[in-house]
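Structure ticket #2291
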Amino acid sequence: MDNPRVQLLLRALDTGYDHKSWHGTILRGSLRGMSAEEAAWRPRPDRHNVWELALHAAYWKYSVLHRLRREVRFPLKGSNWFPRPEGEIDEQAWKADLRILGEIHRDLRAAVTALRDQDLDAVPEGSKTTVQDLVLGAAYHDIYHAGQIQLLKRLREGR
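Resolution: structure written out below.
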């Protein structure tokens, strides 16, 4: 196997986002089939909703990707948290934001695929963390927020 460390990072990204894993629901799975209305629900007015968590996850995948490929830009203005919905709850807007998450995940995965094992110990410009730890952090971040989303879904259902 070429670049076994890179392969392990790809597996971590996959099992945090869109590949079946032993640890429970993954990020994409936690969002599957959710309507815009469900995604916009908040347990309290001052708390984030699922929609915002999805874009937040996209932004931090982008943050890692940007450290690997400096020319990449996030498609929305702002950083970290993006208030959603903007105006009325809109299925098309929800689906568009989910596409942002999916596209950034694919781009991050492609950037990691292009790495070699010896690249993983480097600290990219603008970072204090190695490439390996940045990528692992993106995978862990997905798992963390998948759990939050599952909890929000149960709260919304009154369970």
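Closing remark: Residues 39 and 51 are 5 Å apart (CA to CA).
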